[in-house]
Amino acid sequence: MPTVLFEVRDNVALITLNNPEKRNMLSQDVCEQLVVYVQQAEADPEVKALIVTGAGRAFCAGGQLRDLTPNQQVLEKIYSGFLAVANCSLPTIAAINGPAVGAGFNLAVGCDVRIVTESARFEPRFFGLGLHPGGGNTWMLRQIANWNTAAGMLLFSQSLSGREAVEKGLAWKVVETDALIAQAFEFTANIRDTPKELLLRTKRTLRQAGGTNSHQQMLELETTEQMWSINQPYAQNSIAAMMKKISSKP
Q: CATH no. for residue 136?
């Protein structure tokens, strides 16, 4: 069974993380597929937007714990999946059907718009593993949320339900679970006849319009800080404890 699905319809590319038993975790293989499919969507002259969602009850449970090592190349491999979406030249939508955790939270906030269900949940979880936020998360979150929301989530480890995310401006709207993908496609209806180049140029301008720090600047800073945090005993103990807890489950 493929762990990532890709299809195009109605001028929209749909990427579905398809490993519900593992809560759609971002393995290195999954990240490689995300990169390829994003590039495929961008290269298709008929595709005007990209939707990302998860199969089953989770949107994305984040990266694998064994990949959290002080190895920048491994970290960047995991980053590559959600960064492919975050840096996508097309307008992007995260159709969030359940928890978006850690790197999955990065995948969600890396999209331009988020449409959620009542079961959606935004969970940074960095401090739970003794980690500094990584992958450009602080930059992405501050582009879409005010200081109070960003600080609450990243400095105080607060999570948000789908409805709370809408109330705080982190998501567009809450829809019924069985209507999530249809609603995400419907959200793109107004741009299906818009020239692709106009969409690309407008998104590029929008990205340049806010903030004083570039995404790349924050990505480089966060990578350094996250590598430092992974080397600290607190993170190593937390990761080991979590791995032991998972391995002990029936």
A: 3.90.226.10
